[in-house]
Amino acid sequence: MRARPVLAMLATAAVLVVVTAACIAPNRAAPTGESTEVRVVAREFAFEPAAIQVQAGRPITVILENQGAVEHEFEVHGVDFHLHAGPGQTVKGSLTIATPGTYDVTCEIPGHKEAGMAGELVVD
């Protein structure tokens, strides 16, 4: 009857691998009709998810939900896109990026980027 504990350990290991992969993989936004919607949660001092992946040329709607106690921003460098949300606010905006590449995303409130509020938007 040693097979049962070994199978339980293997099943547990498989679940841990799947959960870990889901946690570290970039958030690939799922297409919803003509536009891609991406939800970003801002807290002190991080974005969740920190990595977002979208398609070039497809309109993107970014929903910034500030779950923090202070104001936060979501700025995509290299394109003209900026969102600002006070504590507890949810704001949204839309953009389209035609050129594939990796774009830095930061909170431009003084000190926030340095405290870790940075990520990337990967455009395929």
From TrEMBL:
Gene Ontology molecular function: metal ion binding
Keywords carried by this UniProt record: Copper, Metal-binding, Signal
Matches recorded under SUPFAM superfamilies: Cupredoxins (SSF49503)
Top-rank taxon, per record: Bacteria
Signal peptide: 1-29
Residue stretches making up the EfeO-type cupredoxin-like domain: 15-123
Residues that span the membrane, as ranges: none
This protein's name: Cupredoxin domain-containing protein
Source species of the chain: Thermalbibacter longus
